[in-house]
Amino acid sequence: MKEDKWKFRMKIKIIKPTPFGSVVLIWSRVNKKVKIIRILLSRPDLSVEDQLANSYHHYEVSSCGEIDFLSEKIRDFLEGKDVKFSLDVVELDSCSPFQKAVLCAEYQIPRGK
User: What global pTM score does this model have?
Assistant: First the structure.
């Protein structure tokens, strides 16, 4: 996905701590709806803060009730709790048809199967 499509509307929410280190939700409002554009996970060699600094230059640290709620669900999921997410909140337009098909198929698989 090209960053400039979202350049002036991109917001971030940093979730910490999680069992996997910090997590960043990159989000925006699309047609008045909250949409997740990307989720960044910390890596052993690169924190999410460094990933942001290296790849994203136009963002605003921001949140809202919907993002706060989703952040808690993501934290719960990363802690091993059984959480079901809605795909309605994910901006899939930047995904290829194959990526969309894989995500939708994976979404149908029950947890632990």
Answer: 0.82
